[in-house]
Design a protein that fits this description.
The protein contains nine helices and no strands. The chain is mainly alpha-helical. The chain folds into two domains: 140 residues, no CATH class; 47 residues.
Amino acid sequence: MIFLKLFFTFFKIGLFGFGGGYGMLSLIQSETVTHNAWMTSAEFANIVAISQMTPGPIGINAATYCGYTAVHNAAMGETMAVLGSATATLALVLPSFILMIMISRLFMKYMNSMVVQSIMSGLRPAVVGLIAAAALLLMNSENFSAPSINPWYFGISIYIFTATLIGTMALKINPIRMICWAAFAGLMLLY
């Protein structure tokens, strides 16, 4: 049954998804697109874009939308798709909730110990790697096209990507403003 698979899949992602939502994106894509084939890569890219634009943590938003899309694509109807959203979201949050309750007391007690500090030092580069993997997985022909397929779309995609990167990193423009400008540029490309 798809609900049990959804629960197990997102529970596993929640258990091993260090680095927050951006770190989880590569795991979510691997499980929902590649391993279980619940959605296409293009659908996942749309889910990531919507997850970034809606309020709340991106990992939880992505789980909610992925649960909905997986059940909807299985032709189970709108009500069941909403249940799929709830299942994926609960499964993603549950491991963190349980672990935080269990270890919060121990962490506060041993926070300054050399062992805990060493573990945290080892996890930081892994988190950066997971975030980089999520970014690289989204750099595909479905999001950027390809020069041989549609040179105009490819060129505009590269321009928007570069402008957003420079705007947020070098010019320190608010990311929300950059998202709005990129959405406006996308709308202008329709005409």
